[in-house]
């Protein structure tokens, strides 16, 4: 596959946005159970194109840190993994919100500290 300029940019941006993507995942996992595929679609809706090969390690990493907890859900023949935020994950999200608010203040209002 030949990389277009857009693919290249999104590959580079993945590093830049990986924290935002994690927070986004955490946010939805606080609101309700999330699933890998649904989360990939949600992220795509926000302009983050993320492959399962990138998303699943992210979810596992968040679970390993204790921010998410997964559960196997049986639906007919298929088994899906649902993720929910843990109390630690909720706390981490609240802390991150404060930091994001501060960052957004600087980015959007051009405020800077010297
Ligand atoms: Zn969202």
| Distance separating the two termini | 46 Å
What would CATH call the class? Mainly Alpha
Shape: globular
Write the H/E string, N to C.
HEHHEEH
**Helix content estimate:** 55-70%
Structural class: alpha+beta
Sheet with most strands: strand arrangement: 1-3-2
Tally of separate domains: 1
Total helical segments: 4
Q: What share of residues are in beta strands?
A: 15-25%
So, CATH architecture? Orthogonal Bundle
Spans of at least 5 consecutive residues with low confidence: none
Mean of residue pLDDT values: 87
Radius of gyration: 16 Å
How would a crystallographer describe the biggest sheet?
3 strands, antiparallel
Q: Could you give a short description of this structure?
A:
The chain has a single domain (5-105), classed as Arc Repressor Mutant, subunit A (Orthogonal Bundle).
Care to describe what's here?
The chain is of the alpha+beta class and about 110 residues long. It has a single domain, classed as Winged helix-like DNA-binding domain superfamily/Winged helix DNA-binding domain (Arc Repressor Mutant, subunit A), CATH 1.10.10.10. Helices cover about 65% and strands about 15% of the residues. It is built from four helices and three strands, in the order H-E-H-H-E-E-H. The longest helix has 27 residues. The radius of gyration is 16 Å and the shape is globular. The mean pLDDT is about 85. Bound molecules: zinc ion (ZN). The site of zinc ion has 4 residues, from helix 1.
